Structure formats: C-alpha cells, structure tokens
Amino acid sequence: MDRGWRMLFLQQNRPALNTSDGIIYGNARIPGPRCPETDVTSAVTIVTLMLPFRQLYSEILLQAHRYLLGEASKKGDPVGPDSEFNFNAIFDDLSKLAEVEKKIQLLYRPFICIMDFSCRFNLYELGILMPDTRFEPACHPSVTVRLHNNFAQVKIYAGGKMVATALTADAARSAIFRVIRMVQEMDYKPDIKNFSKNVVHASFCMPFKLDLKLMAKNHSEQVTSNPEKRPFITYTTENAGVRFAIFPTGYVLVLHSSCHTETREAIVALLPILAKVQNGYPTAGELQGSETSDMTYKLLWEKKLEDDKEGLLLYS
User: Fold this and answer.
1) Lower CB density within 10 Å: C or N end of the chain?
2) What pTM does this model have?
3) Could you tell me the domains of the chain?
4) Count of CB atoms situated within 10 Å of the CB of 87
5) What is the C-alpha to C-alpha distance for residues 142 and 156, in angstroms, rounded to an integer?
6) Most distant pair of Cα atoms in the chain: their distance
7) Could you report the per-residue pLDDT of 30-52, keeping only the tens digit for each?
8) What residue spans of the chain are helical by DSSP H?
C-alpha cells in the first residue's frame, strides 16, 4: 500500500475489468478485493486505484491527455492567431523579437552538466574555503560556486554530486571540471561515477496544428516517426546537430544544441517548414483543454526525452 499512490482517473469507453481477484486495466493487474463502486458496464467509469506501477501511471496520464483533447476537439470553431507572422523572416525585426517569442511561447533551457562522485563533501568546509561561494543550508542543501569567467554556476551536494549550469554546453562542462580541480586541491579525491547532461534546450508552440504525415512525406530523409511508440516525429537538421521532437498539436522540443545561438538558427530554419504543413487551428474547446492537460503532457515527454540519453526514443 505504501509503495503506491491514490489516483482518480476518468476512462472513456475503456472500462476496467472488475474481478474478484482485483482490477485489470489493459495488460496490468491491480490485486485486491472487488471494487463495488466500479461500473464495468458503463461507457464512463471512475476508478479509484492504488497504483504501484510507474509505467501504468505514465500510460494513464497519456490516455487522459488524449481523452481531454478528443473531447475538446468537438467543441467550438477553430480559433486563429491574433496576428499573422511571416515565418520566413520571423526574427529579422529585432523590435518585435519579444512579441514573436511570446506568441510562439519560445522558452530556452540552460545547459546543464551533472557528475556523480564516489566521495562525500563537507559543505561547511567548502563554503568557507572556496571563493565566490554561497551556502545557505536553511534554503538549499548545496554550496553554490559562481564562475564569472564562464558565466556559470556549480552546485555541490554533500552526497557527492555536482550540477553545473551555464549559457552554453562548453561553459557548463568547463565550469564543472574547474570546480573539480578546486576540490582536488583541498585533498578530496572525486572519482567520477557518472556524467550526464541535459538534451532538451528549448521549446515553442506554433499557433496552428501540424500535419506530421505530410511533413514526413516532404522530408523523408530528415524525419523519423513511429506512431505506435511516440506521438511526435523526429526532425534532424542537415548538419546532424540540432534535433526537433514535433507534436501534431504544434508543440516542438529542441534537442542536442550547443548554445542558444545555434538553437535560434535551427528554429529559424524550421519555422518555414512547419508553416507549410499547417493542419488547421485549434478549437476553443481544445485551447481550454490544453490549459488543463498540456502542461502535464509536455513535462512528461520532456522528462522521457531527458532520460533517453542514448536517443533510442527519438529514433525508435
């Protein structure tokens, strides 16, 4: 019981199978007594379950998102944008840059490097002896080291972890190795156990839906898709650097960039391509539904892509 979590889930036309041995949902069996409040004959079933399975939890989130969007698409007329943009030269007028980024909800992510070490750190000692540090144990369980030459900061945790954040991938990597040399001079022996970095570096959302099948047809060499495993297509730029995870709702994640300049250049090249595969505007119901479900849905897939360091999900 203490390993699970309680969840209320609304199912549409997929009622759970209520048996004397427990509840069966898809391929998963939730053991327990028969649930009297479950109506297995109803098209809409409300099931209160203890779910100890992380994979099942993710599946339910995805099913809930699809259900909400499906219901929302039936409500209202398509709602177009307040103003039109020339996607062939969207960033040329710098005076409108802030307006454009707001309209397409462009959000940049910092570049992060993470290292795990086989030793533990004395944070009080590091906070006193290392330059340009801040240690506030009541606010955050780490020592923050600011590196002005790299425009970066590194957080050091007592358990043996360092997290570097910077404006470029090279700056983040250089910052964390610089801090490693600092702690080595203090007689620490930080043997590296694990090294990783974030792969999602920006996101934006087009004001219209996208026809992914048409895009895959027009750009077959740059696009890979697998609708059975993922709801997005992967678009790779010509120089095989930046990748995009493109969703039919118009939402796009930018991956494997090295700096924000490279990110912006890749987005500028992609926008005219997306403009040619418009698939209508979302309805008022879809816009309302996105407010309640899209945030969880977006965060879920961003987390999946961050965990997929080898890129298997992008090209499966």
Assistant:
1) N
2) 0.70
3) 1-52 (no CATH), 94-108+200-315 (3.30.310.10), 111-197 (3.30.310.10)
4) 18
5) 5
6) 70
7) 445 554 444 433 333 333 344 44
8) 54-72, 97-103, 123-129, 169-184, 212-218, 260-275, 284-307, 312-315
